[in-house]
Amino acid sequence: GGAASAPGRVQQLAATVSLAAAPTEVQAIADRVARLAVSDGGFVQSSHVQVQQGSTSEANLTLRLPSARLSAALASLGQLAPERGESQSLQDITDAYDAARRRLADATAERQALLRALSAASSEGQIDSLRERLSQARSAVAQARSALQAVSQRASTAEVEVTVIGDAHVGSEGPTLHRGLHDAGRVLTVTLIVLLIAAAVLVPLALLLAALATGRSAWRRYQRERT
Question: Residue 45: is its pLDDT beyond 80?
Answer without folding.
Answer: yes
